[in-house]
Amino acid sequence: MTIVEPSLPNKEKDMSKWYDEVLSRAELIDIRYGVKGFIVYRPYAMEIIKRIYDAFEKELEKYNHRPALFPVVIPEKMLRKESEHIKGFEGQVFWITHAGYSPLEEKLALRPTSETAIYPMYSLWIKSYKDLPVKIYQSVAVYRYETKATRPLLRGREFLWIETHDVFRNKEEAIRQIEEDSEIFRRITYEELCIPFLHLRREEYDKFAGAVASYAFDCLLPDGRVLQIGTTHYLGTNFAKAFEIIYQDADGQHKHAHQTCFGIGISRLLAALILIHGDEFGLILPFSFAPIQIVIIPIPKKGYDHEKIHNYCLSIEKMLREKGYRVVYDQSKRTPGDKYYYYDMRGVPIRIEVGPKEVDNNMVTLFRRDKRERITIAKEELCTKIEEISEEIKEILRKRAENKLKSNIVEANSLGELLEYVDKKIPIIKVPFCGRRECAEELEGETLGYETRGYVEGEKAEGKYCIICGREAHHIAYLAKAY
Amino acid sequence: MTIVEPSLPNKEKDMSKWYDEVLSRAELIDIRYGVKGFIVYRPYAMEIIKRIYDAFEKELEKYNHRPALFPVVIPEKMLRKESEHIKGFEGQVFWITHAGYSPLEEKLALRPTSETAIYPMYSLWIKSYKDLPVKIYQSVAVYRYETKATRPLLRGREFLWIETHDVFRNKEEAIRQIEEDSEIFRRITYEELCIPFLHLRREEYDKFAGAVASYAFDCLLPDGRVLQIGTTHYLGTNFAKAFEIIYQDADGQHKHAHQTCFGIGISRLLAALILIHGDEFGLILPFSFAPIQIVIIPIPKKGYDHEKIHNYCLSIEKMLREKGYRVVYDQSKRTPGDKYYYYDMRGVPIRIEVGPKEVDNNMVTLFRRDKRERITIAKEELCTKIEEISEEIKEILRKRAENKLKSNIVEANSLGELLEYVDKKIPIIKVPFCGRRECAEELEGETLGYETRGYVEGEKAEGKYCIICGREAHHIAYLAKAY
């Protein structure tokens, strides 16, 4: 019996519905846990997440970062030490006030981010310039009492990330780290996950609480809104002063250290991976992140010896397993059509179909999930072909997503022009901008919700004027609606 | 300048002091975080922890477990659903009562263990016998408001573990899982981490809250106390009834599922690894868990071309790196003696010393951390030798620890005999036992703190009588002081 499932909603027209359906049908996320903003990561999601974590951790370690783990609880007095920081987070903190049958002496915050947990320890560990640089990351969940509507993976009250916290002798080294962070992010997000993004310096009024400068990575979702998937901050000596991170330099002087931190939004990267690459059949996954890379499906035929098909499938499975691929040979009694539906939904990159024709001719029929194309090749070419396809998939997904992003950015040089683009629902609009909060607020009002997302350093605004106040433009701002 | 550090205290005589010194000198754990029972895992500890996690996760996956992640918060009403369970944990729960500026409608527990977070979801996911078995693990921190004295890694209020939660059609399958869990635990703990342990069925009055039967893995620490490093429980249908985990069987009947859970104490396994294998020079690590497996140390000599030594070291480093080993070539200006001290403390399994003699004769001098022996071999034999040594280390560490465990178990058949052994401070004493709580309490009183840790299933007590009440013995109980 073939289970006929309704096809997915159109992703471009109703992203939200498409997304909910895919999360549920591919058994990725369960939203029925019963606490607002807290979701359950089901095995298939977790198997992808673990690979995303692994890719970033390896890349961070390549650049001399080391793992560490700091407590999930932060004493209230620590959280309050850097005054800008607490202002930014106070409204979002979950508080532990009781344990067992008694109230605690001091209430404890669940980490919303870990500067105030980590930097008191850095103050103990760092004494001399010889102790620097310190480059540490931790892979953890963080907790923020979001008051905006929560959406699974996009905005939750518990979300997964990696945070790095690095300490340097001076500004130059810290700025170099900011650049290195961008390169690490690009290497995995763009090259491996095939997610293109804008790399924007956030406006002054939009910085991370306590930072000197904030940079963010925004990707574009199919509904035209952007999603911040990573941030990297130059903290200057703000936290070093609050937490007394002081080292004795080679010249004998005691100096405040310069710090950076870098957040990689693992939950959001999974959301982006699902939303950007998926289609009406479900997920499309890059080969190296797919929990199942290859599925083998036997296509029985009446009057043809099934044992022959079975043995042929087994031989292919064995060959692929020996090559180290994650392969499933689906011997269940469901129809081939049901199986196609099931593995398509889960984004399995390559399907191998084996019927009498393949067995008799020592051939293999391959179906590629990304292009939805079938090819038939000789069995002995299989491994070479798979290697070839696994690379091609990345190029195709990257190019598709990149074209999408590029074709959705326009530049407006007057308010009138801007409003025309807004009317046409162009997702990302560049405008000359003075950099002041008042004008940003007016822009948001005029456009019914486009925020200033920051600017690309080096993109010139010479001779241009802020389209709101007419002052000389400081830069070209990127406007977009955002999650 | 050679830094002369005092040697470590004697581990057998003053384990506690030895332990604190090693945690600090090897830069494993920092206890100065400022919240009782919460510690900081420094990079060197975390690099070992990640490998322990990885080893267990791979083994669990080999047996068809899949990763998942459930929220850290558990609503109070869920935690209260299974009546025995909440009785066992209520006094130990951290409560989140506020978020932002307001009290929460329902208070949330920080997970002390995850049965009550996971099983409501299982009740939604499991409908038919075709959905079974479910075998899921999660690698997380758990939170328990311990009232006993806390000790880093041994007993904390935040500790790392893996928990599996499996669901089956019937008791037989569940019991088979309990056996499989033991095998998984043995494979990694005994074979890879080289930590021998007792596998004990816990007494009825000492079961996990809500379980039908509890089994635990206890290892022996140098101070003569035992440490529970893992547990596996047959839950029967207790939780299935409380959380309505009901499936329709092949016969059409609706039945309560049978469940098991399995906890692997990752923090405690790190403690055991440190305490059981270490010596007066610091850590001793099995080769595959060592963050640095091999260190190359140049031994300069006056009048000998240092460049020649340097190039020779580089060639060794390159060769070992190509083989995939984690190798450090320490070119710093510290003296060889300082370097020996540093890497010995961190348990680096193999040290390669390169001086003029080695360069001139195309030889390599190897120092093994486990046996503290030096051998000199031809350079081309190096990789083969390393492979050999890495296996030998495991055998040596395992045998040492196993002899220690075995030689510290005695059997007493009367209270008098028991008290003699207690006087002699024998760590583990076996006695015929009726299985009743009253007698256990009397035993603990008489021995000033030996607890009944359970019994080995299949170890016969026929014809023997409880050494307290004289009733027929139900089994041979293992008594020990415990963490």
Describe this structure in words.
The structure is a homodimer of 483-residue chains. Chain A is α+β, with helices and mostly antiparallel strands and 483 residues long. Chain A has 3 domains: 15-277, BirA Bifunctional Protein, domain 2; 292-388, Anticodon-binding domain (Rossmann fold, 3-Layer(aba) Sandwich), CATH 3.40.50.800; 409-480, C-terminal domain of ProRS (Translation Initiation Factor IF3), CATH 3.30.110. Chain A has 14 helices and 23 strands. In chain A, the strands form 6 sheets. A 7-stranded mixed beta sheet of chain A has the order 3-7-8-14-11-10-9. In chain A, strands 16-15-17-18-19 form a 5-stranded mixed beta sheet, sandwiched between helices. Chain A is globular, with a radius of gyration of 26 Å. In chain A, 47% of the residues are buried. At the A-B interface, strand 2, helix 2, strand 3, strand 5 and strand 6 of A face strand 2, helix 2, strand 3, strand 5 and strand 6 of B. Strand 5 (94-99) of chain A pairs antiparallel with strand 5 (94-99) of chain B.
